[in-house]
Write a structure and sequence with these properties.
The protein is of the alpha+beta class. The chain has two domains: 49 residues, no CATH class; 78 residues, no CATH class. The chain is 28% helix and 24% strand. It contains four helices and six strands, in the order H-H-E-E-H-H-E-E-E-E. The protein has a three-stranded antiparallel β-sheet, with no helix packed on it. The longest helix has 14 residues. 7% of the residues are buried.
């Protein structure tokens, strides 16, 4: 899922300098604990926010950013659970968005463990079909 998310962001932003800099990336398995998460996959939440066609409406970057900005500023939520924009048809594929300024100074209470979980490489040659896992 990380590769698909990165590829989606690179495609949406089309920043060739950024793409060239992201040749190799390490993946991490991050455990998150705590309360204060707002699940934006929940239809009751999107209805309360008057969002139509959720989660499809989040394909529009302006709607996604505006929604996060409003929720960050006007709710006590310390994090959001959002559906992966790369897998809008599968709510089991989600991403946690943490609001750093709302978390405790000691992050170990929220992120008790971080484990390296592999590496992948992007081939930034024009016309290359997809990223591939690293072999080393």
């Amino acid at each position: 899922m990380a590769i698909v998310q990165l590829a989606r962001h690179l495609d949406a932003n089309r920043d060739r300098a950024l793409t060239a800099a992201l040749v190799e990336r390490r993946l991490y398995d991050i455990a998150i604990t705590g309360d204060g998460a707002l699940d934006v996959r929940d239809a009751r939440v999107t209805r309360a926010l008057s969002l139509h066609d959720a989660p499809g409406c989040f394909r529009a970057l302006t709607i996604a950013r505006a929604t996060v900005t409003v929720l960050r500023a006007t709710t006590p939520a310390r994090s959001l659970i959002v559906q992966s924009a790369a897998f809008l048809d599968d709510p089991t594929r989600w991403i946690a968005v943490l609001f750093r300024e709302k978390l405790p100074t000691d992050l170990t209470t929220v992120v008790p463990s971080v484990t390296a979980d592999g590496v992948f490489r992007l081939d930034t040659t024009p016309g290359t079909p997809a990223p591939t896992p690293a072999t080393s």
